[in-house]
Amino acid sequence: MKASPFWPAEWAAQDGVLIAWPHAGTDWADNLADVERTYAALATAISRRQRLLICVADGEVEARMRQLATAAGADLDRIQAVRIDYDDTWLRDSGPISLVDGNGFLLLDFRFTGWGGKFEASRDDALVTGLFERGVFSLACRHESVDFALEGGAVETDGQGSLLSTWHCLATRHPDKTREQVEKVLARQLRIQRFLWLENGALQGDDTDAHIDTLARFVSPDTIVFQGCDDPMDPHHAGLAAMADELASLRRPDGQPYRLFALPWAQPIHAAEGRRLAASYANFLIVNGAILMPGYGDQADAAAARVLQEASGLDVEIVPCRPLIEQNGSLHCITMQLPRGVLADV
């Protein structure tokens, strides 16, 4: 009997990770050199462990990527470049969500609207189709377009049919739909049986309407790591404390509470013009055998790594991500993992 499709957790075995290299035609133009250093460090960390598929806008961007990745110590044998158009580099939200479907894979291509029409996104919305046309995915993969606005950073799974998300984000994307209607679509498309909705939690400097991947994440079926705030004078304190209470009230399928680990709070980081930036340690990426955690040059970086190691049992590597939060995202936001068997052989 053919197994039913399911959405694997991030810690399931991976073929690789998908990213898009920044260039002068993206929003990174003003701090491109700093951001490229972050991408080169990320490419090095990923390519030590698995393959890395990098979208590049043209030959000049590809040459620049290879030069910087080589200088940073990346394994070029594990890096594959694919030339394709894109508006920006937030591949968590415009890339495919992969379901395991029997002996193959179903790559879901949800509608990407630039976070509710905040930014131009037509090329990003066409990205998954373009990648299929370029043959980067294995013959075991099927492409399914879904006429429903959803970003990958808005949803989190334990790999066992549970979805964790913030209701504010989904309600903002679909103001004409009830919670029951939204759940019906997500249950059908993502094969979800349980919904764990958070009503609290948001970060200043985040323009995603409270993506879950900046707030709370599964690291195993029974463990959730979340962004805490231990400064009662910080404007985030009340909302994140209320979110922590919500997480404590959630139950696993067996009725037991989740193991919860609070991540430390970085000192406020501001852009040059004064706006607060969303420096969340919850925006980590799980790869094969390790967690890549964003670092912000803050004294809390090392403590956050220790929390993640204790919670997950995985090795933790800090990737310097201070430049990324200038554009309101971090490490998880620029990456999309691809389960083992999704990428074509090269």
UniProtKB/TrEMBL annotation:
Keywords: Hydrolase. It comes from the Bacteria. InterPro entries: Peptidyl-Arg-deiminase_porph (IPR007466). GO terms for molecular function: agmatine deiminase activity; protein-arginine deiminase activity. Coiled coil: none annotated. The keyword Methyltransferase does not apply. The keyword Hydrolase applies. GO terms for biological process: putrescine biosynthetic process. This is Agmatine/peptidylarginine deiminase.
